[in-house]
Structures are given as C-alpha cells and as structure tokens.
Design goal:
Length: 230
Amino acid sequence: MDIRHHFIEKGEGQPLLLLHGNGENGEYFKNQIDVFARGYHVFAIDTRGHGQTPRGKEPFTIRQFAEDLLGFMDEHEIVRADILGFSDGGNIAMVFALNHPDRVKRLILNGANLDPSGVKRRVQIPIDMGYKFSSLFAKRSEKALARSEMLGLMVNDPDVQPEELSRIQAPTLVIAGTKDLILRKHTKLIAECIPDSLLVFIQGDHCIAAKNPKAFNHAVLRFLKEHPAK
C-alpha cells in the first residue's frame, strides 16, 4: 500500500472502525469516539486524500478506499471488525463488506447510497455541475484536479447494484436522518436488499451523528448489543 492512514484510536476490546464522509476526516465522529470507546477499541480513520492521510498515487475511488481499509486492518492486525461508515464512508463500508465479507463482524451504513440516483436532485445537480467544471481545468490546476477527484466520488461512485447487496453476510444497521439528502426510498431499498438488516431513521438531516449524537449513539449501541456477530 502506498499510504499510511492517520487515525484516532481509543478504547479496548472489539475493534470498531469509523469511516467519515466526503471531504471530512475522523474528527467528524468527535461525539462518538469517547462514547463508543467505553465498550470498543475505536479507530476513526482518515480516508486516502482526506484529513492527514496522504493522497498517494492509487486511484481515488470508493473501491480503492475499500482496499486501503483492508491494508489498514492487516497493518494493525485486525482480523475482523465492526465497521460504521457515514456517507462516502458508508459506501466504502458497503463495498468492503461485499469484497471482504470475512473481515466484517457487523456493519452500520449511515447515509450511504448505491449511486447518484439515491441523492436528492437539488443536492446532486450542483455536485454534477461542479464536477464537470473542475474536470475541465484538472490538467492545468492541482486545485481543480483535487476538487474534481473529490466530487467524482459522488458522481461516479459507488456504482453498486441493489441485487449485489444480497451477498452481505454481516448483521447490518441501515440508519439515516428523517430529512437526509439521501432519498428515503433509496435508504429503504438498501435495507430491503441486505438480508436481515435493521432500518432506523433518526430525527435530523444527513449529519445525524454530529447534530443528534445522543439518539444516533443510542441506536448504534443498541444494535451492537442486540445483534451479535455471526
């Protein structure tokens, strides 16, 4: 692997990996780390090209990030883990669970989507436009290139078909905000396609972990307590 991840580590016991969203870093989970660390060994990881983790030279895609996660787990001798991903982090977790099912104990997908059609159009249209504009200047400007790569994650990825989700073996919590930027029907579709998954909506927008942490943390910890790993 061409990078080494920056991460926040706290607690002991069963590994719980936290994956942030697009353009963020592990600090997004500042309202979760201490709470979850009371019962788990928490790793809040900065994705490739985010936070303090370098960009490296590998492709800037959700699937590459999933392989990066595998490398992180191997590096830290984590055989299996509970994985919680938010937004693009949820997409990484979803792809990781499809490609490496033996490494996932339980899966928590917060505000994930299968493709751009799952995002409300008023949100997705500016993303599409920004991606097209920045891509025009990507060869002449490092700033434009970085912006096009970041937006490209929300335009071209994760590109997962609903029927693929039937292969996810881990107990799964699908969780989103009541006013999420991910369409409610899309979140329901994800839950319906994952065998024996639990669907929960928390009052709030896309960022329920940050803005409604008490309810979010309660839902996550309850799921982990009541759904033992297979």
